[in-house]
């Protein structure tokens, strides 16, 4: 009988691994598909030749300079947002926790607006297209803004021994403060600056070049290793503060370090890409409903799902009314929200 | 002797909660901690587990001073069942397996799975093993949390009101499990309790706390009218039914 139940359990875990593998395969296939479509359609053979560096010049250029960095940015951002959402929901003990609930995105928005008006770096081409002529400065300020929001909350948590609930409330307060700051800047900005600020907030996966994609990848890998290393601690935290402590988890430290790393991960992504909503909130929830809340599986599978969601959204965003590219954040919400509502309705049936 | 608590004092900021608490627990004993709300029962349990650090005094477990052990070492010696248990999207097998955490290095071993399977069978939880804990009833959930404590393979089991929110049948079942395990596996249990009759039926020793101090301790004789009046401010007398003492409220 004992054998029976451990066998059944092993079987269930094998199913979860299969789901993970299926998602990985889908991600790979969809990446290929995404490489092939766009304003200039490419056949599989052309993609292959370009990838090994022997394609035609135009195919090489499109693959290596435009589509591949974009696709990889989508995958990294999807993984980063989904995983940081999962970790924040656990460490803040709140289903509403996500990079956006604790004021990170508002901080980034404030930083970007501040840089645009301070350095006068927003503008418009004679064609009417909006541009930001010093994207690095905007990125750095966006990063500072978002990370500052996170640090204030973490410092309060550390110094005043905030509970997770108080951390969420502090996050909402910080978000509101940064929003107000952004509005003040926007109020005094001219039309072009205002347009640049709004344009910046639309998440755009076409922004980063290889160097930036590299930075995002490094931060993602280090964070993932830490999160996966801590998977048992997260499972323990899910079963309650006291239970976790009695299982030998240093709950305060785990919570602080996890939040710090998750915030850093999100800040890097927001700074390079702008704001992409909803992925961090819904991916972990969807996967929790599908395979359960065991962080050994929840982290990698949410990560894969986040990557797919963002890649599919972006592929649709850049092809649906081509040559116009829609901001991907709009698509993630349009696709994610109904799916999420459907699952909630199913759950409460 | 497995546990010795010597002259322990604890206070929340300036409010003194425990004073001069001193007792010993032997292997395989079930010890109940009794007292009114706010008497310091849960605080005492948390001090024993070092979730809270006493201001003064020494706690020895298995002849080790608690302060010399790290939190994982403590978790391998002592398991704690908290007062508030909640279900979530983790299945019963995983929830119980979690108790192996202090023993797990990187990934679960065959032994971890075996122990979990055995405890699930012992606790009659096999049929629920793959259900999410949020789908369980209060009694089942309580059993899951006790099962998790057991797979920790502790020498001491600390339970904070384990019969809270349970119906009569489950109260009996849970207390019987605690007693049986203590006796069969020589694990000591320290249980915070409110129901005096349940306590009398399943415990070997009793510690009555009043205002953070031990008012009385010993075998079932300490549960008498005088002490109940002093500790709970309630008039009661103690009768005997088939050899089991029962408390009847006046």
Provide an overview of this structure.
The complex is a heterodimer of chains A (349) and B (250). The model of chain A has no long low-confidence stretch (mean pLDDT 86). Chain A has helices at residues 2-36, 44-51, 57-91, 104-119, 135-160, 164-188, 191-201, 210-229, 231-238, 241-246, 251-273, 279-291, 295-319, 328-347, and strands at residues 122-124, 130-132. The two termini of chain A are 34 Å apart. In chain A, α2 (44-51) packs across α3 and α12 packs parallel to α14 (328-347). A two-stranded antiparallel sheet of chain A has the order 1-2. In chain A, β1 and β2 (130-132) form a beta hairpin. Chain A folds into 2 domains: 1-91 and 204-349, ABC transporter involved in vitamin B12 uptake, BtuC (Orthogonal Bundle), CATH 1.10.3470; 100-201. Chain A is mainly α and 349 residues long. The radius of gyration of chain A is 21 Å and the shape is globular. Chain B is α/β, with parallel strands linked by helices and 250 residues long. Chain B has one domain: Rossmann fold, CATH 3.40.50.300. Chain B has 8 helices and 12 strands. Chain B has helices spanning 41-48, 71-77, 92-97, 110-122, 138-151, 168-185, 196-202, 225-232, and strands spanning 3-12, 15-25, 30-34, 56-61, 64-65, 78-81, 156-160, 188-192, 205-210, 213-218, 236-241, 244-249. In chain B, the strands form 3 sheets. A 6-stranded mixed beta sheet of chain B has the order 6-7-8-3-9-10, with helices on both faces. In chain B, strands 2-1-4-5 form a 4-stranded antiparallel beta sheet, covered by helices on one side. Chain B has a two-stranded antiparallel ribbon with strand order 11-12. In chain B, β4 and β5 form a beta hairpin. Chain B starts with a strand and ends with a strand.
Topology (SSEs and partners):
The complex is a heterodimer of chains A (349) and B (250).
Chain A: H1 2-36, H2 44-51, H3 57-91, H4 104-119, E1 122-124, E2 130-132, H5 135-160, H6 164-188, H7 191-201, H8 210-229, H9 231-238, H10 241-246, H11 251-273, H12 279-291, H13 295-319, H14 328-347
Antiparallel strand pairs in A: 1-2
Helix pairs in contact in A: 1-13, 2-3, 3-8, 3-11, 3-12, 3-13, 4-5, 4-6, 4-7, 4-11, 5-6, 5-11, 8-11, 12-13, 12-14, 13-14
Chain B: E1 3-12, E2 15-25, E3 30-34, H1 41-48, E4 56-61, E5 64-65, H2 71-77, E6 78-81, H3 92-97, H4 110-122, H5 138-151, E7 156-160, H6 168-185, E8 188-192, H7 196-202, E9 205-210, E10 213-218, H8 225-232, E11 236-241, E12 244-249
Parallel strand pairs in B: 3-8, 3-9, 6-7, 7-8
Antiparallel strand pairs in B: 1-2, 1-4, 4-5, 9-10, 11-12
Helix pairs in contact in B: 4-5
């Amino acid at each position: 009988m004992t054998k029976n139940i451990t066998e059944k359990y092993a079987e269930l875990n094998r199913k979860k691994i299969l789901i993970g593998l299926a998602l990985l395969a889908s991600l790979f296939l969809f990446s290929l598909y995404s490489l092939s479509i766009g304003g200039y359609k490419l056949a599989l053979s052309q993609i292959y030749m370009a990838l090994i560096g022997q394609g035609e010049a135009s195919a090489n250029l499109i693959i290596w300079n435009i589509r591949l960095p974009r696709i990889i940015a989508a995958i990294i951002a999807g993984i980063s947002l989904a995983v940081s959402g999962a970790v924040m929901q656990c460490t803040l003990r709140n289903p509403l926790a996500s990079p956006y609930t604790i004021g990170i995105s508002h901080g980034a928005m404030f930083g970007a607006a501040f840089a645009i008006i301070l350095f006068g770096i927003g503008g418009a081409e004679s064609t009417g297209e909006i541009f930001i002529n010093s994207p690095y400065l905007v990125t750095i300020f966006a990063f500072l803004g978002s990370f500052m929001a996170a640090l204030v909350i973490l410092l309060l948590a550390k110094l005043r021994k905030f509970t997770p609930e108080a951390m969420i409330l502090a996050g909402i307060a910080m978000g509101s403060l940064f929003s107000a700051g952004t509005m003040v800047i926007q109020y005094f900005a001219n039309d072009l600056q205002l347009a640049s600020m709004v344009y910046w907030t639309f998440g755009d996966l076409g922004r980063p070049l290889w160097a930036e994609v590299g930075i995002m990848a490094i931060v993602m890998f280090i964070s993932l290793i830490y999160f996966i290393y801590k998977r048992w601690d997260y499972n323990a935290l899910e079963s309650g503060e006291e239970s976790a402590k009695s299982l030998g988890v240093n709950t305060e430290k785990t919570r602080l370090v996890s939040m710090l790393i998750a915030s850093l991960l999100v800040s890097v992504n927001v700074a390079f890409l702008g704001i992409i909503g909803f992925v961090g909130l819904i991916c972990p929830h969807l996967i929790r409903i599908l395979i359960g809340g065991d962080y050994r599986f929840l982290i990698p599978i949410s990560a894969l799902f986040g990557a797919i969601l963002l890649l599919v959204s972006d592929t649709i965003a850049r092809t649906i009314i081509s040559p116009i590219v829609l901001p991907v954040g709009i698509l993630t919400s349009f696709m994610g929200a109904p799916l999420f509502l459907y699952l909630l309705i199913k759950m409460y049936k | 002797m497995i546990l010795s608590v010597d002259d322990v004092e604890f206070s929340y900021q300036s409010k003194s909660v425990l004073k001069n608490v001193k007792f010993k627990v032997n292997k395989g004993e079930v010890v109940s901690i009794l007292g009114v709300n706010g008497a310091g029962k849960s605080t005492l349990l948390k001090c024993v587990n070092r979730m809270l650090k006493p201001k003064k005094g020494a706690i020895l477990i298995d002849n080790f001073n608690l302060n010399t052990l790290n939190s994982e070492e403590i978790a391998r010696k002592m398991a704690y069942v908290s007062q508030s248990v909640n279900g979530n999207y983790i299945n019963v097998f995983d929830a119980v397996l979690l108790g192996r955490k202090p023993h797990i290095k990187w990934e679960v071993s065959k032994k971890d799975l075996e122990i979990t399977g055995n405890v699930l069978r012992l606790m009659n939880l096999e049929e629920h093993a793959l259900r999410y804990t949020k789908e369980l009833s209060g009694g089942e959930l309580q059993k899951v949390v006790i099962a998790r404590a057991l797979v920790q393979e502790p020498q001491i089991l600390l339970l904070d009101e384990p019969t809270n929110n349970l119906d009569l049948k489950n109260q009996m079942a849970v207390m019987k499990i605690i007693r049986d395990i203590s006796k069969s596996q020589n694990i000591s249990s320290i249980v915070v309790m409110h129901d005096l009759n349940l306590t009398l039926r399943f415990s070997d020793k009793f510690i009555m706390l009043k205002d953070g101090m031990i008012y009385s301790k010993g075998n079932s004789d300490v549960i008498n009218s005088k002490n109940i009046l002093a500790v709970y401010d309630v008039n009661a007398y103690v009768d005997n039914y088939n050899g089991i003492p029962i408390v009847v409220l006046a």
